[in-house]
Design goal:
Blueprint (H helix, E strand, L loop, with lengths): L1 E8 L6 H13 L19 E4 L3 E8 L4 E9 L4 E10 L4 E10 L15 H7 L16 E3 L4 H8 L9 E4 L11 H7 L5 E5 L5 H8 L9 E4 L8 E3 L9 H11 L1
Helix pairs in contact: 3-5
């Protein structure tokens, strides 16, 4: 079952060796000890496999296509099998990131909750991901205030489109965030831009600039890159504190 897939535009500063080193760093730096492949030593090989049957990482270079592909696989005790693929095309400077989950015959019914790969955080921190138009690809929200209202009004009016979906989160009637915006932006890293209204005092200006098409008072809009994918709006209904259910709906809609 495909859980996650993203295609990222990568800066030319990333070399083949840098890509492989980053993959190894991602595995060796995992906070979960049972995910780490022991005794992994890389000496510049482009075709090599590490690990055992239940936990392994394979690196393959396809020279004719100028591609390096990496697969990491882990089998859980409940029978589930996690596959993570990183495929870097150095001709187009695009990277495909994919997370898949399948099951062996004796698999148990397990909790499907997951988050986007930490590897994307490493790409962001090292500055390897290209900007999406005038928007950087971040793991934190972009604040919408008086000085940059055109950023969101152009999106609402259809004047601006981006490679990634845009999630626009408005402030509630009491001028509070409807969801944990930092946590949601972190979960959607590399998958969507998260724009957050700084204050509901800008509602009237945004309404005027968009002919009333804007979200407000805690509503969240998702603007997809393609017109073929319908725009979605979710309303804030929680009377007290963050609306975790709303946050989860937005996350799953984007994924």
């Amino acid at each position: 079952m495909l859980l996650f897939s993203s295609l990222l535009d990568i800066n030319k500063t990333m070399t083949k060796d840098a890509f492989i080193r980053l993959v190894i760093e991602w595995n060796q730096g995992s906070p979960h000890e049972n995910n780490i492949i022991q005794d992994m030593v890389w000496n510049g090989e482009r075709n090599i496999r590490y690990g055992s049957d239940g936990l392994w990482l394979d690196i393959e270079e396809y020279r004719n296509q100028n591609i390096i592909a990496v697969r990491y696989e882990k089998k859980e005790d409940d029978g589930s099998v996690w596959d993570t693929d990183y495929v870097m095309n150095f001709n187009s400077m695009k990277m495909a990131v994919r997370l898949d989950r399948s099951y062996t015959e004796d698999a148990l019914n397990a909790d499907p909750k997951f988050s986007t790969p930490h590897f994307i955080t490493l790409l962001i921190e090292r500055g390897y991901i290209k900007k999406d138009g005038n928007l950087p690809v971040l793991r934190e929200p972009i604040v919408i205030e008086e000085e940059n209202l055109e950023l969101i009004t152009d999106i609402i009016n259809g004047k601006s489109r981006y490679r990634l979906p845009v999630v626009y989160i408005t402030r509630t009637y009491y001028d509070e965030d409807p969801v944990n915006v930092k946590f949601l932006a972190s979960r959607l890293k590399g998958v969507a831009h998260v724009l957050v209204q700084k204050s509901n005092m800008t509602n009237s200006r945004i309404k005027e600039a968009t002919n009333g098409k804007n979200e407000y008072y805690g509503a969240i809009g998702i603007y997809f890159p393609s017109k073929a994918t319908a725009y979605r709006r979710y309303l804030y209904r929680s009377a007290l504190g963050y609306d975790s259910f709303l946050s989860e709906k937005v996350f799953r809609s984007v994924i």
